[in-house]
Amino acid sequence: MALTESFYPNISSPLLAESDTALLDVLTSPRWQGVQKFSRRDAALDPLLLAVAASAGTHTTRNHYHHDFFPGAQADAVARGKRGAENTNKPQERKRMSYVSKQGPRRLRLQPTISLQPAIASQVISLAGPSPISSIEVKCMARTRIPTPYGPVFLHLYHNNRDNKEHLAIVVDPAQYSDDSSVLAPPIRSRSLDAVWNDDETDMDRIIRGAYVGKLSATSQHPSRPSLHQPSPTASIPSPLVRIHSECFTGETVGSMRCDCGEQLDEAIRLISQPISLPNNASPNSRTIPGRGAVIYLKQEGRGIGLLSKIRAYNLQDLGHDTVTANLMLGHQADERGYEIAVAILRDLGLGSELGEGVRLLTNNPDKVQALEKEGLKVVERVQMVPRSWRHRSHSQADAGEADLGKTAGVTMIGGEAVRGEDLDKYLRTKILRMGHMLPLYLAGGQAES
Ligand SMILES: Nc1nc2c(ncn2[C@@H]2O[C@H](COP(=O)(O)OP(=O)(O)OP(=O)(O)O)[C@@H](O)[C@H]2O)c(=O)[nH]1
Asked: Polar residues compositional bias: what residue ranges (predicted)?
């Protein structure tokens, strides 16, 4: 009450004797003509409302039951105002004031408890075998064509039963787009997408979720049919190029030069889209086919620690700590990612299976190669991702390769540009020296450090 008195000294004392709730009702009632009226909807920061809210105890919000917005401050206010400052040292009082959440701890919430709807679950791709990821199920919910500076790609959106994130697959396979029946390579298609989801599904339902073949247009609408067979490898065609890429909002969208993530995403799609030359014994001229492969885009911001922690980590980095130490100082691991969902998505796309063609993996990260091989995916080659600025350094003519990259084209804000700068050099150096990334360390002078 002391608070309301100080905010509203002109309010009469009988009124102040009312309970907080009654007082609010009176003050906000259209019938009350004696004092200023308050709109309950619009008075978000009204001091009276704040005073009442602060004295009303712990808060209940839709998602956070019993949270205290300002744990220390409110506990102190409650203790002093209601029980007296002398009581605050009592152990039982301290316990009552502590932060209480009715949400499960993060480690429990992240456990695989999410179940897909039965209709969906019956169509998902389950991974067989005794591996710890055998319970992972993924389902491609929708697919569409995205034109990019490097050509069309098919964006696939996945749901899974391990986390509630929407991971993506960016499939480069423009041969599917053409009417050319002499295309040699097996199409890269999602089995869960092409499955029949329910008996009532119409052709238009299938087309709208992306289960179509060829080029979709007002005059070309061919729903796909479920594929039961694993695409068989074609000896003369190199295995598809695949990248497992972790989300980086700062690098990909903002154009941050603290890391090379934006450049890597752009470069991966550019490399996968390059036409493939096939040797032709009968003729000196080699034949080319369209590039093919996929980027599995995982929602693993900040190596799995999330954007909030990554932003904090950047401030620690500005204080002089490297990326690994900054993560550890925030109570995270250096790298909290797993690649089980990526494996399941690759399987769904028919990529890397033992009987199939295998994949060429675009990465410098040994963990990714190991993770795929551990789950039985066939990695026939690791293809290095050399930072564009380092590629130039390794050549005597510093700018020789830059023109080839196409400065303006690109799928991220960085586009065809090379990321460079002191921040990036520190970041790459840490990856190589502390995280074991398999890349020669080029120094600014143009020499490789062993
Ligand atoms: N915690 C943290 N994460 C970062 C930082 N900079 C980029 N990232 C995240 O790092 C992830 C990319 O991982 P990298 O270690 O760069 O590369 P990689 O995927 O392990 O390996 P490559 O396949 O060789 O690219 C993305 O999720 C980015 O958001 C940083 O300073 N701190």
From this structure: 218-237
- Out of 292, 337, 347, 388, which one is annotated catalytic? 337
For 268-303, the pLDDT digits (tens) are: 999 999 999 887 766 666 788 899 999 999 999 999
209 neighbors 161 (Cβ within 8 angstroms) = no
Strands (E) in 4-163, as ranges, are: 59-60, 65-67, 125-126, 137-148, 151-160
Does residue 279 share a domain with residue 343? yes
Task: Among 73, 104, 135, identify where a domain stops.
Answer: 104
Mean pLDDT of the chain, nearest integer = 75
Q: How far is the CA of 145 from the centre of ligand 1 (A)?
A: 27
58 with 127, same domain: the answer is no
What is the rounded average pLDDT of the residues 168-187?
Answer: 84
Identity of the highest mean pLDDT range in 5-19, 362-376, 416-430: 362-376
Residues with CB under 6 A from ligand 1: 246-248, 259, 261, 264, 300-303, 305, 310, 313, 323, 327, 363-365, 368, 385, 431, 437
The CA distance from 315 to 367, in Å, is: 27
Q: Ligand 1 centre and the CA of 365: distance in Å? A: 10
Whether 278 and 354 map to the same domain: the answer is yes
Nearest atom (ligand 1) to Cα of 245? 19
Q: Which residues contact 224 (CB under 8 A, 6 or more apart)?
A: 189, 193, 194, 206, 211, 212, 213
Q: What is the largest CA-CA distance in the chain?
A: 104
In this structure, is residue 313 part of a structural domain? no
Is 179 marked active-site?
no
- Please report the ipTM that was assigned to this predicted complex: 0.98
Ligand 1 geometric centre to CA of 146 (Å): 25
Nearest residue (by CA) to ligand 1, atom 31, is 323
Catalytic site residue 335? yes
Spatial distance between the Cα atoms of 169 and 190, rounded to a whole number of angstroms? 10
- Look at residue 46 and tell me if it is in a domain: yes
DSSP H stretches of helix in 67-202: 71-78, 91-97, 106-109, 118-121, 191-194
Range of the domain at 96: 2-104
Domain boundary among 53, 73, 104: 104
Nearest atom, ligand 1, residue 250 CA: 29
What pairs with residue 245 in β-bridges?
297
A 10 A CB-CB count for 60 gives: 10
- Number of domains present in the structure of the chain: 2
Pick the atom of ligand 1 nearest to 362's CA. 23
Tell me the mean pLDDT in the region 1-29. 46
